[in-house]
Amino acid sequence: PTRSLDAGNRTTCEEILAAAKTCGFSGDIDADSAFPGEWHKARGRVHVARTGAKAELLKKVSAELRRMRQK
To answer: pTM above the 0.70 mark?
Structure first.
């Protein structure tokens, strides 16, 4: 089963990048990117360098986001 971080709040690119860096990954933010269906809402995207499986990266980063939000 999947668990939501917080269904009412959107996670920002800055939060995701901070969590990824805390987990030992490097990355950057492409602030001008937008989902094609919402081209008028440029929310950005995060590029994270990884060598392993994407699923493992997502598990680590989501766990760190949960920990960061509990502070």
So the answer is: yes
Q: What CA–CA distances, in Å, run from 34 to 17, 26, 50, 64?
A: 17, 22, 22, 25
Asked if 62 and 47 touch (Cβ cutoff 8 Å), the reply is no
Q: Are 32 and 44 in contact (CB under 8 A)?
A: yes
How far is CA 22 from each of CA 2, 33, 38, 61, rounded to the nearest angstrom?
22, 24, 30, 9
pLDDT reading at 29 higher than 90: yes
Interacting residues of 62 by C-beta distance below 8 A, sequence separation 6+: 5, 19
Count of other CB atoms within 10 angstroms of residue 24: 7
